[in-house]
Write a structure and sequence with these properties.
Elements lengths: L53 H6 L41 H6 L3 H29 L4 E16 L16 E11 L21 E8 L1 H4 L5 E5 L9 E7 L4 E9 L5 E4 L1 H7 L3 E3 H14 L10 E3 L2 H7 L3 E3 L3 H6 L2 E2 L4 E7 L6 E14 L1 H11 L2 H35 L1 H33 L1
Antiparallel strand pairs: 1-2, 1-13, 2-5, 3-4, 3-6, 6-12, 7-8, 7-11, 9-10
Helix pairs in contact: 3-9, 10-11
């Protein structure tokens, strides 16, 4: 038996009736821009022989009858919803990447995709945890010790006339010496090498102050000191230079005060011997003192904010008991400025032009290069953009697979019972056409209230 196909049967590519329509009809007095329904796709078809009574629709205060949906038709073809311009796309969810169990049974190879998806979730959780750990580490100062080689160069030369005919007076004929203090960081092999990938740090940035004390008997009490002190407007330099007249060797003392970041303190000798610390930061000193208190069980078991000082702490703080809140105040009196680096040097002055170079190695703290790498890792957006682009492609692929599955179910349902399928479809279409006026009415009322 051949079943005749009606002329008004919708092809499979048209939207399911329950997914909504995009109607161009509107009630009198309603501006067209109010019909921005985010869930309509197709325009409804009027039943032949019937014309909508727009006047009655506009004057009615109750929605027309026929608001109930038609019977369920089973799975129908899926089509994307058309959104008005300017409306943002709905945010994708992690569940949108999951393939249903029914589809996995149809395509057993899709289980490999689900395994990869599970591994990706574990990897994302691990990376997020590591990023949080890196952020916590970056909050603390990350320093590493390096060798700074200080070069002290002194040059002496005798003043000469500018031309053969010129004569210099006795003051101009004396010998002049010049002292230069420079420095370079050493690499791990102990060589002076500069890495072009890392910014060069100026020599003066390692120090808070520099004082050169010359021989007082030769230059008097007023001009035997050369001082440099850091201030907020200081311009960093690669070295320091001192120039003086003189034809005899000059003894000089160079005092270099390191600029610790964060600030370091020298402990009182008594507390330093007790804790085994000479110079350290404030947090390190407080932590070490707390470890000493816990190890020797000096905390009062009843009043937990009180410390019972032993004979050593009592001799240092001059009190038998000590409150935790008083420790910072008590420690301030025991903090001292770190010892400067003292270099004894003799400026050799010999007849004729001479030059001599000596060097000393000192330990300095510099920012760990790993800190910059960790910071670049957190600030990098190239990888994140690539991951987002790949995720979008996966979303589109999964949506396409789900749409193909829906079409397959639609075709199978039609092929199994064409006559019953078409009859149910026609009944559903007929009832949905009665629902359209009610849907438009609710939409107009909603837009009117929102305005």
């Amino acid at each position: 038996m051949t079943v005749p196909m009606p002329n008004n049967i919708m092809p499979p590519q048209m939207a399911h009736p329950y997914s909504g329509y995009q109607s161009t009809a509107r009630l009198p007095g309603t501006p067209p821009q109010r019909m921005n329904a985010p869930y309509h796709t197709e325009s409804p078809r009027r039943t032949p022989g019937r014309r909508p009574n727009s006047k009655n629709q506009a004057s009615s205060s109750q929605p027309p009858p026929g608001m109930g949906p038609g019977p369920s038709m089973g799975p129908m073809p899926h089509h994307p919803v058309h959104r008005p311009p300017g409306r943002p796309k709905p945010k994708k969810k992690a569940s949108d990447l999951v393939i249903s169990q029914q589809l996995r049974e149809l395509v057993p190879e899709s289980q490999a995709y689900m395994d990869l998806l599970s591994f990706e979730h574990k990897l994302d959780a691990t990376i997020m945890r590591k990023r949080l750990d890196i952020q916590e580490v970056l909050k603390k100062p990350m320093k590493t010790k390096r060798k700074l080689r200080i070069f002290i160069t002194n040059t002496s030369y005798a003043n000469q006339s500018k031309s053969p005919g010129d004569q210099l007076n006795s003051e101009e004929c004396q010998t002049t010496w010049e002292l230069k203090i420079e420095g370079r960081l050493l690499d791990e092999s102990g060589q002076v090498k500069s890495d072009p990938r890392t910014p060069k740090k100026k020599f003066s940035s390692f120090f808070k102050s520099l004082i050169i004390e010359l021989d007082k008997e030769m230059y008097g009490p007023d001009s035997n000191f050369v001082e440099w002190h850091r201030n907020p407007s200081t311009q960093e330099t690669d070295g320091f230079q001192v120039k003086r007249p003189g034809d005899k060797p000059v003894k000089c003392t160079i005092n270099l005060q390191l600029d610790y970041q964060p600030q370091n303190f020298k402990l009182d000798p008594r507390l330093g011997r007790l804790l085994g610390i000479h110079t350290a930061t404030r947090p390190v000193i407080v932590t070490t003192l707390w470890q000493y208190i816990k190890t020797n069980k000096l905390q009062d078991p009843i009043h937990r904010d009180t410390i019972k000082c032993d004979e050593y702490l009592q001799s240092i703080f001059d009190t038998p008991t000590l409150k935790f809140s008083d420790i910072p105040f008590k420690l301030n009196h025991l903090f001292q400025q770190p010892d400067p680096i003292v270099i004894e040097h003799v400026v050799a002055v010999e007849p004729g032009e001479t030059k001599s170079v000596t060097h000393w190695d000192i330990n300095v703290e510099v920012d760990d290069t790993l800190k910059q790498q960790m910071n670049n890792f957190l600030l990098s957006t190239v990888t994140q953009q690539e991951i987002m682009s790949l995720d979008q492609k996966i979303y589109e692929t999964v949506d396409s697979i789900k749409a193909l599955k829906t079409k397959r179910e639609f075709m199978l349902s039609f092929a199994s019972d064409p006559y019953g399928f078409i009859n149910k479809w026609l009944i559903s279409q007929s009832r949905d056409l009665k629902v359209i006026p009610a849907t438009l009415y609710r939409l107009v009322m909603y837009v009117s209230k929102s305005q």
